[in-house]
Amino acid sequence: MDLEYTPEQNAFRAEVRAWMEAHVPKTPLKTLEGREGYDQHVEWERELASGNWGMVTWPEAYGGRGLDLIRWLIFEEEYYRAGAPLRANQNGIFLLGPTIMEYGTDEQKARFLTPMAKGEVIWAQAWSEPNAGSDMAAIRSRAVRDGDHYVISGQKTWSSRAAFADWCFGIFRTDSESKRHKGLSFILLPLDSPGVTIRPIRQLHGETGFAEIFFDEVRVPVENRIAGEGEGWNVAMATAGFERGLMLRSPARFQAAAKRLVALYKEHAATASPAAHEAVLQAWMDAEAYALNTYSVAATVIAGGHIGAEASLNKIFWSELDRAAHRAAMSLLGATAELRTLPDGAANIWQEGYIFSLSGPIYAGSNEIQRNIIAERLLGLPR
Amino acid sequence: MDFRFTEDQLNLREAIRDYLTGEHTPEVLRRLDVEGGRDAAIWDGLIGMGIGGLLVPEAEGGLGMGLIEAAIVAVELGRANVSEPIADTALVATPLLGSDQRAAIAAGALKVALAHPINPWIADLDSADMVLAGEAALPAPEDPAPVDTVDPLRRLFAPIECAADDRLLDRAALIAAAQLIGGAERMLELATDYAKTREQFGQPIGSFQAIKHHLATVAVKLEFARPVLWRAAYAAQQRAARTPIHISHAKVAATDAAMLAAETAIQVHGAMGYTYEVDLHFWMKRAWALAGAWGDRAWHQRRIEAAVIGGGMAIGPETTFASELNHG
After folding, report:
1. Catalytic-role residue among A217, A243, A288, A376
2. What is the pLDDT along chain B (328 residues), one digit of tens a residue?
3. Of B4, B206, B216, the CB nearest to A303
4. Helix %, strand %, coil % for chain B, to 5?
5. H or E stretch including A154?
6. Any catalytic annotation for residue A376?
7. B206 lies in which domain range?
């Protein structure tokens, strides 16, 4: 066990810090969930890419820097330390990117990864359907083979970023006779394809961060399929692993929130409830524990280990700590908690954060599904 | 930066786990409960494994290991619910004593009880050869007055007035946290095993989501308590400036995991869990005891609060391992 950074790792931290200090927008961007804020966030993605920071763990050939997970954690720590914006392309870089890296052909890697790292193509996720939420194997949207194309018909819903994004990735039933997990394929397509209709859905906060996608005989070239026909479920499960696991929610995000929460507590200490006081300390401890666990998992992965069902432990922990931390902030704010704009004119980021945190235990596989996975695959309880 | 155990550390864990699984079975716990709690054969066995000399320098006949290894052993002692005073003597007291005393501990010839004003009792004073009290090593008193405890295998006695030694408190809290983690792991296993075999409504109760979700929640709590313990042990080994905060965090996290594991395990066992026949109660009562020992949750949380809210400790994403090591 060695919990000290090497001089090279410290130098890397200094390099990231200097770049972030020079480039992170001085005024907060508008919410990523709305049109105006989305455009600002895409602009930031391109700014990041200009510094070659799009996705530091990817090979240089695909717009990355070929760095290991420890450097990625350091990058994330400096990113959140600087208060840099959320990643508009998080569905792409954190979910689809690693999937293509693992299952894509060389041609697909070259075609999709570089524009993703550069922020030129923003990705949406198209998995859930009206009757296939937690029960994702109930997917019905079809992709029927017609020569060197698939013809896609059906409906996806709650697709993050789909109201504004350029492309989507999803799983579709390529074998019309198949049931459940079999006969599904993982396919990528542009959201401006003929036959695609997007209907933005207003979310809890009033913005349209996700959308329904209707497919009416949309023609997609076969080369847009990742991995073999009928292997979509396994590919999707690997992607879901990335989503729940190491990358999507880096610990730095929660450590930065815990630091802000401590500052908020100090402002409101005189009126804080004992429960809020307790929750502030718990938020700091849990963010710290999450960071330590992530370094531990990263060391295992670097040494050739694999994250399997353990990712479900992660997903529960970060989503529930995020909700608890924001609940504490709402409590500290008291009567001002309901205001969208605070008396000093700033947006109420704690309220925005609290609303968003309520989605955490639901998306990426609800926490009830995660608890089933832990019980069955890690504890060995019967199905 | 490599947050993994070494091969040697993994081998140590395996060796002690194998030994205790074979020799310190639930049948032993039940026998000790009837016979009065201690067995020279168990003490001798642990000394034979080298645990007495774990922290004793090799030049003095010990294994020359550090606090990460001590915590690894303590987790296993907690898993097996070992009640011999080996943790207090060999894993806490040793580095605070002189070389003759260390050599005697390595040989299994000296048992040390620990006195600190934070505890309203002293454990194992009856079998101790000496008491570490404040910074003084005192001879153990004759005929100490017993204190009644809920844990049938713990032996407690009236406290001795002494000064507070922070080094002793921190080490003992770290080792208590490790034992709590081990106990929590074992309680989760006991409850999981029971859920796989106990049938109601024609199927194992572990197939019901209500049971699954209870146990999964314990697994999450434990998963994120463990690395807190290992970081605390590492910091203590390195004499890092933030060690007391890390140990307090470990004690809080381990306590929460153990208390949740205990309450969940009894719930999953149902009425069986409320009986003295099911072994769960040994671990559950040890968790209650260790939760309050060497600074309870509130005490350790106040220490964290003083640093995180009250004071000058830098927090934030870049501080996880920053500027805290090798400052002691």
Report:
1. A243
2. 999 999 999 999 999 999 999 999 999 999 999 998 799 999 999 999 999 999 999 999 899 999 999 999 999 999 999 999 999 999 999 999 999 999 999 999 999 999 999 999 999 999 999 999 988 899 999 999 999 999 999 999 999 999 999 999 999 999 999 999 999 999 999 999 999 999 999 999 999 999 999 999 999 999 999 999 999 999 999 999 999 999 999 999 999 999 999 999 999 999 999 999 999 999 999 999 999 999 999 999 999 999 999 987 999 999 999 755 444 3
3. B4
4. 60, 5, 35
5. strand A149-160
6. no
7. 170-319
**Rounded-to-10 torsion of CA B256, B257, B262, B268:** 120
Q: What is the 3-state secondary structure (H, E, C) of B267-305?
A: HHHHHHHHCCCCCHHHHHHHHHHHHHCCCCHHHHHHHHH
A281 vs B301: CB contact, 8 Å cut-off?
yes
CATH 1.20.140.10 occupies which residues in chain A?
Answer: 245-378
Q: How far apart are CA B240 and CA B170, in angstroms?
A: 13
Angle at B128 between CA B122 and CA B129, to 5 degrees: 135
Exposure of B81 in the CB half-sphere (CA atoms within 13 A): 30
Per-residue tokens: A161: 């970023």
- ipTM for the complex shown: 0.96
> Between chain A and chain B, how many beta carbons pairs sit less than 8 Å apart?
172
SS3 call for B47: helix
Q: Are residues B193 and B153 in the same domain?
A: no
Task: State the Cα–Cα distance between residues B321 and B234, nearest whole angstrom.
Answer: 11
Give B133-170 as a DSSP string: ETTEEEEPPSSPPEE--S-TT--EE--------HHHHH
Q: Is B215's Cβ below 8 Å from some Cβ in A?
A: yes
| A123-233: CATH class | mainly beta
The β-bridge partners of A152 are A143, A218
The domain defined by A245-378 folds into Butyryl-CoA Dehydrogenase, subunit A; domain 3 (1.20.140)
